[in-house]
Specification:
Blueprint (H helix, E strand, L loop, with lengths): L20 H21 L1 H16 L4 E5 L1 H12 L1 H5 L6 E5 L19 H8 L7 E5 L6 H12 L3 E6 L5 H4 L3 E4 L14 H20 L16 H15 L3 H11 L2 H12 L1
Parallel strand pairs: 1-2, 1-3, 3-4, 4-5
Helix pairs in contact: 1-8, 2-8, 3-8, 5-6, 9-10, 9-11, 10-11
Amino acid sequence: MAFVKISEQPSFYNDLEKKSVLEILQDINTEDKKVALAVEKAIPQIEKLVSQIVPRMKQGGRIFYMGAGTSGRLGVLDASEIPPTFGMPNTLIIGLIAGGDTALRNPVENAEDDTQKGWQELLDHNINDKDTVIGIAASGTTPYVIGALHEARAHGILTGCITSNPSSPMAEESDVPIEMVVGPEYVTGSSRMKSGTGQKMILNMITTSVMIQLGRVKGNKMVNMQLSNKKLVDRGTRMLVEELGLEYDAAKALLLMHGSVKKAADAYRAGKE
């Protein structure tokens, strides 16, 4: 199959500057409705990747997200949400973006065109064969990502990718390519829109399912979340009230003593035995 950048094809809409605000919003919403359906079609590939990640992480492996621009920012975002949500150290899921942290807020010229930089950054993190490298690029052609995936795969490291174009160069370097075809963007080529939305959804699916498989959720609750603000302390307290049948103040004191819902509940039950 010849490689065609569907994400760069002309928008289905024209004369955008002549539309009313309502028309623009309705059109964007119409396009956004297509994203979840495109992600649904990719679930078999997402499942395949997650199923290979989990046993690696149980042996101490990590996930590295790699991308440039919007894709890189979304990888860093997803990685940064794991410690507060699941109480895991920030060294298990790591987001790398072409151009480094500066690129989170400002474009770094030519950073994504360096085919060697990504692998060098992985070496700086002592990458090994228990780890997984997931490239993120709507186009599927970002040299920074492709170079890193190529070297990772050559070293026996599991590779995956998230792209909006089938049969891309990035997919060729991936053991498990996730191809989420959302079609042309509302503003032609603006992959921060549907492609970015779909990437965020898939990243959520990958890390949430991995964390559940690693035992970081009980029932449907974030029992290992960090107690970093009053809202989360209150949420954790209510979990203990529900689970242990304690009064609110007693549950709160127990929670603050042990630092997480799981540790508090385990300690309380151990004391009852």
